[in-house]
Amino acid sequence: MTRAIASLLVTSVIVALPIIAHAETPEELFDRGWDAMDKRDYETACALFDQSYARSRATGPLQGLAACYEARGLFRQAITLWRDAEKTLPPNSPSLFGVRAAIKRLKPRLAKLTLRLPAGAEKTTRVEIDGEVVEVGSPVEVDPAVNHVVTVTPPDELVRRYDLRLGEGEGKTMSLGVMRPSSIGPVDLGQDAPAAVGPVRATGIGLAALGLVGFAGAAITGGIMMAKEQTIDEGCNGPSHTDCDATAIAASEDAKDLAPWNIAAWIVGAAATSAGVTMIIVGDGSPSKPADTAKVNVSFTGLGATVYGTF
Questions:
Q1: Mean pLDDT, residues 124-139
Q2: How far, in Å, CA of 47 to CA of 45, rounded?
Q3: For a Cys staple, 304 with which of 29, 129, 153, 260, CB 3.0–4.6 Å?
Q4: CATH architecture of 111-188
């Protein structure tokens, strides 16, 4: 029994020896990485170059990994590695020319994002792009055509998240204080984000427009009433408007019907314009607090109009 166990152990060691002996060297991993590059299997190639560089810390695998990231369109990672290679290579290295050419080739293709906080923001507010803390107000290189996550963490407040994507070579300035956080899909910065029209200002603009409509209605109904008064003067005898003909009587009834509408139009015009201008001037306030939704309702009756709402 003892001999059988010993024989089994020896057999296991003999079987394991070829596996240990054939562990891939950094050079072999490097060669396999380029084979995968030739097959356009970039994910495998990057993994092999990464393993080779981790074991050797040589510039060859570092350049291979940079070339792999570039082939995948991850320009920021690629140019970072190319720059590392440029710092590591000796001044007389024949590879230095190709490394510098790669840096020059990639630099204009990178997207650049500049983030700004609103005036009065706490100095301890932390801003990150894809989990990396960045300096506010300075352009940051990012990969184009890739979704990015910007997070803003004020002291003692909830984290606010912004999803965005930039095009190749695009430069953009994003004012975090006026953009609404979004957790659904990327924000296309190909178009300028609305910088100053929040829900309160938008409601103010709507109210101001309603006020103009009210004034227009007041002017129209007032003009009609004046025409009716002229008809009454022509169809009635004396200043007391007695003994009126049928046309004058009809005009008088029409004028009475229009009177409450004229008054209501003036009220709506004045109230809506006043509220609208106030809301436009005041604006949306602090972006960290969700604005209430403003609602305005106007109902007309035979006797006038009622205006009510929430702000």
A1: 93
A2: 5
A3: 260
A4: Sandwich (2.60)
